Amino acid sequence: MNIRYLEAFLTISEEGSISKAATRLGLTQPAVSRHVKELEKSLNTTLFIRSHEGMTLTETGQFFYNDVQPTWHELQSKLDSFTPKKAVRLGVAPFISSTYLPQTLTYEDSKMDIMCTRTQDNCFEFIPMLKKGDIDAAIFEDYPHHDGFYSTLVKHDEYQVALAEDHPLANFKELSLEQCFSYPQIVPPKTSRFYQMWQALREKNGWRRKDIQSLPHRSLFHSLKQNHAIAIIPKLMVEPPWNQHFLFKRLSNCPFTRDLYLFTAKKSYLKPLQQSLVHTLQR
């Protein structure tokens, strides 16, 4: 019996359709269909009930699946232990790559070497890179879905206020938005999701300060101390070495939150990459 026939059978059983199984296996639908027919021929039985709604196991097919699936899973686990780690090219925001992810991240449970090969302040620039295959995955901010890609949440993040130790607001335990807008501010690039939320709030409340700088995340901290400015930043950025030189204050009634999503065109990458990134970003 060809092992590919067995793999096709198990995948269709789990996905419920030939088209989904073909996508997961990286094969054409006719090839997957042919594998199942050959398996049924060799076993001299019908394993699936075929309908417009998909593929459903027959009683014999269900018995066969229950017997074979545990053995297949054990075989896959043993094969994986001998398989070299996959090199996965990841696109991320600059502050994530510089703070959390070294040039290559190895997380044992994922069997992957995750390499940060591209950084962009505007995550939407990763979409054409993913389509062309220049990168294998990317992290997007507050953008949960896009046609043609698999995606999943990897981090829910809140915001805090960053300021220098000698700033006039340094003695407050918690700051309000009104206090923040009373001082010069440094904000991320105008293409960022946060800038759009921040600008909408500013216009709604009529806060008209002009001493505002828009800078990339990686340059933000260098300007805080020089300008007696403040910055409202993701809590994820409250990490060494920056927190040795700055104070971070809770923002009362904070209207800002963000969700980070992992995108990839390869379904098989989604779960192991999610596990690796959640493990890394939760520290």
TrEMBL record:
CDD domains named among the record's database cross-references: PBP2_LTTR_substrate (cd05466)
Pfam families named among the record's database cross-references: HTH_1 (PF00126), LysR_substrate (PF03466)
Signal peptide positions on this chain: none
Keywords on record: DNA-binding, Transcription, Transcription regulation
Cellular component aspect of the GO annotation: cytosol
Any one GO molecular-function label of the UniProt entry: DNA binding
Span of domain HTH lysR-type: 1-58
Alphabetical list of Gene3D superfamilies matching this protein: Periplasmic binding protein-like II, Winged helix-like DNA-binding domain superfamily/Winged helix DNA-binding domain
Entry superkingdom: Bacteria
PROSITE patterns: HTH_LYSR
SUPFAM superfamilies registered for this protein in UniProt: Periplasmic binding protein-like II, Winged helix' DNA-binding domain
Record-linked InterPro entries: HTH-type_LysR_regulators, LysR_HTH_N, LysR_subst-bd, WH-like_DNA-bd_sf, WH_DNA-bd_sf
Sequence similarity: Belongs to the LysR transcriptional regulatory family.
Entry protein name: LysR family transcriptional regulator
Organism (species): Shouchella lehensis
